[in-house]
Model the fold of this input.
Amino acid sequence: MSEKPVLYTCSGSRGFRATWAAEEAGVEIELELLPFPPRFMAIEYLERNPLGTVPLLVDGPDEGGVHMTESCAIAHYLASKNGSTNLVIAPGEPDYAYYLDFTYHADATITFPQTVFMRFSLFEKDKGLEEAGHAYARWFWKRLVKLEQRLIGREYLCGDRFTVADICCGYALILAEKIGLDEGVPDALKEYRARLKQRDGFRRAEERESAGPAAI
Ligand SMILES: N[C@@H](CCC(=O)N[C@@H](CS)C(=O)NCC(=O)O)C(=O)O
Done:
């Protein structure tokens, strides 16, 4: 058993939220970089995570330890497991509700249409559903309105500081750039993304993940 939490992930996947949060929080993790998709390329991984998805965080023993499979929850967990840090907004702080809302919004509402686009318009073009994928791209762009409005007059989403909510939503904007969905991303969000990418924690996380084969 590793003393450190072990993050099973694929480079550039949603697990990047967790790698980035660990770097920002100064929490040591062991990174297990898998080929993508592990469901086909690392079949033994299904014994650890029957969903076959990444990321998976194991903290503690394989049996009886913590097992988590949601990137945003893992990012929050790593940023707060040793006590509250500036990376999370605590109950009682004015933006607590918004912190939760944007952290959940990131995957459930923003990344969701991105993944449908990727599946139908990039990975499985032969299925004849490419146009449906493009419809999800348009849906993704429309859904950016909430981030755009929130960032008017703000540098970060919550609490006047960089938090896990920025990591979680920022990842979706970083993914958009990688998969050719930048056309409908408003300039203000591109500027926000550029600010996030200048962070040392972001650069260190990218460097760590560059050791594995890219998922995207
Ligand atoms: N809601 C989950 C989604 C996890 C997920 O679907 N991850 C993708 C990679 S970004 C994956 O593992 N896809 C491969 C597969 O489904 O086989 C999260 O945020 O971590």
Remarks:
- Residues 38 and 44 are 9 Å apart (CA to CA).
- The chain has a mean pLDDT of 96.
- The radius of gyration is 17 Å.
